[in-house]
Amino acid sequence: MGEGWEGGGKEGVQARAGGLGEMVGGAFGGQGPTAVVHLGSVDGGSGLDAERLEAGLEQGCDSVLETVQTLAGQGYRDMPRLWVMTRGAQAVGAGEVAVVQAPVLGLGRVIALEHGEMRCIRVDLDPGRPEGEGEGVLAELLADDSEEEVALRGSERRVARLVHRLPEAERAESIEWAGGRAFRLESDTPGVLDRLVLRAAERRAP
Questions:
Q1: Which of 8, 151, 176, 180 has the highest local Cβ count within 10 Å?
Q2: pTM for this structure?
């Protein structure tokens, strides 16, 4: 499901969901599909102009919402698994995040919580569009494992993991009384709030 979608607010989404329901209902001879792959956001781009953002929401969030409404209304005994594809929505390494794609990733997480029967999987594709990408996507779909969020970057498959990290020995700091001395709050890594430290500084006259 990756075609373009027209706007129209809540009523427009509901109307389009009805049309999509007729298409899905007649596509499999009355039988439910095993899985549904949403590709509407894959070519949404990463620009931040108003027109591109609006188009990204229609092709992404509106389209995903329509798909969920359609599947939920079909009354399937065995709900098909929903795969939501994005491109560049995950922060991996030093690469930039595609802001237009980020709302779709967030919506996919909400779907996983509110519609657990759909077992929604979020797969984030490489913004660089590497050669042979289709083979990696196909392998991911056929594997159908328990990972809920996957980022494909080149030939690598990234998943979220918590890693135990020992404190850096060279950052050991002692605790001592200020004794009337002046201190300044500094950060060794600008923009990272968990690296703030107090360092002695010369007091300046007001």
A1: 151
A2: 0.68
